[in-house]
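Hi V.,

You were right to ask for the full record rather than a summary. Here it is.
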Amino acid sequence: MRELVSYIKFDDKGLVPAIIQDDKSGAVLTLCYMNKDALEKTLETGLVYVFRRSKGRLMMKGETSGCTQRVKSVYIDCEGNSILFKIVQKKAACHTGYFTCYFRKLGKDGKLTYEGKPLFDPKEVYKK
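Predicted structure:
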């Protein structure tokens, strides 16, 4: 799996977008960014690691919430500039408690509606 890293074209900041998709339902859960370390750690452990741009650090998805993502399969796009991970999601992927980060749907009237219900209360999970 480490060979995959050699096929990836990281951007000028050393990052590549990674799409996270639920293997069972096919739902797109989130878009995150990985640097080389995050990608290698993901491939080594089978758990999704990301580079948190806002914090400037490597982080395992779910390290705070316990909502981890186990990798089932990995795909790269035709040009090597993005990655798709099909995963098994433990509980919810979104830090707001929803299963997917894409729970807000834009209607033809221009208004947002929410689909689904939160699976956990972020105030309880992310106590400071």
